[in-house]
Amino acid sequence: MACFLLPKTLCVEIENIIAKFWWQRGHGKSGIHWCMWRNLCFLKENGGLKFQNISQFNIALLAKQGWSLITCLNSLLARVLKAKYYPSLDFLMRN
What we know:
Layout: H1 8-23, H2 37-40, H3 54-71, H4 76-85
C-alpha cells in the first residue's frame, strides 16, 4: 500500500472483508449491523471506532513515501527510484 495506488474496487473489497469480520457472530453466521460502516471510521471523540478508510489510508502512505523522496535525496530508495523513473527531473516535476 505504501508503494502502489490500489484500485478503488480492491479497497472496497478489503473494507468488506473487515466489516464482515466485525459484524458476523461466528463462522458463516451473519450478525446485526448496529450502525453504518462509515460511522465506525469516525474518530473516537466523534463516536466512531477510528477504523481506517483503506482508500484514504493508501493515499496517505503514498504521500508519506513521496515526502521521503523529497526530503531524503541520498537514501538508497530515492537514488534507485530517481535513476529508474526520473533521471533528469526532480520528483515534483512532470514530463
